[in-house]
Amino acid sequence: MQNYYVGIDLHSTNCYIGIVDQDGKRIYGQRVLNDLSRIIATLNPFKEKIKSIAVESTFNWYWLVDGLMDEGYNLHLANVCAMKQYEGIKHTDDQSDAFWLADMLRLNILPTGHIYPKQQRPIRDLLRRRLQLVHHRTALLMSMTSMIQNCTSINLNRYDKKNLTHHEITGLLDHPYQVMSANSINNVVLEIDENINKIEKEINTKVRLTQRYKKLNSVWGIGEILATTIMLETGDIRRFKDVGNYASYCRCVPTIKLSNGKIKGRGNKKCGNQYLAWAYLEAAYCMQRAYPKAKQWFLRKLNKKGRFVAIKALASKIARACYLIMKNNIEFDSSKLFA
After folding, report:
1. What CATH number does residue 102 fall under?
2. CA angle, residues 53, 113, 95, in degrees to nearest 5
3. Containing domain of residue 127, as a range?
4. Stated pTM of the model
């Protein structure tokens, strides 16, 4: 019996389904609305012969991958960032993309992403929502700080701008419209703070660091929230072959392509996990502010390479150390990190 391979080019409202056999012959192609029952009905006549299905890792893949896996299909999540068609192709469309996915799956050369366990996704996504709220709060506070500095020349420090009251804002600004603008920002920041606290409380009550990840708290600069973020975003540490693969997944390695000592191009900076990249950068900022050894190392790197490279290099060291801690279940050793 011949095996069939399916490629699904997924969009916001519809998807294109392409099916090829083990010789690459196109068996079936059809555009279907994004309705799970319709997609299952489309695949049912070929179900016995379908060996595996490739679905693009787009923003809306959860429902499709989960639904097809529940039907017993073997699913692969195609890593869009790692795929690149031949540049000489003059025309592509959804049909060619779907059959291209099926062909790469047939040839066993499809770059795939990790299908995160369905049961753990909601709490991980809740933690991601907290991060988005933190970013929004930071942007609003910076906007208010800039406005106050523009109007009064007063440069508020990090603590003051987070704790301004309506009365203090009125004392800083003269014009009623400026006061209204600053108060509107302050009201939104207070509302965001309340929601962040609710999320953190829920996460602290529902999520406990497993034994393999508890020792992350021993790393300088990593507290409960960062340790929980690293645990949920990393998943099973054993899925990473070595420390280099993990550092690359955390976006902690250079993307420069060299030839004979010269730069000939750059890799895809978006390939990897942006939330782990943020977590390790945050840990690096905390570590170099609070611990002398880290500060000394950071300053040496800063003098040679500049601030951005220095903080990324420190984040890379922390990511590599955390990989070994999670992999081998050992305590953090600063003497090895800053030998």
Report:
1. 3.30.420.40
2. 45
3. 121-206
4. 0.85
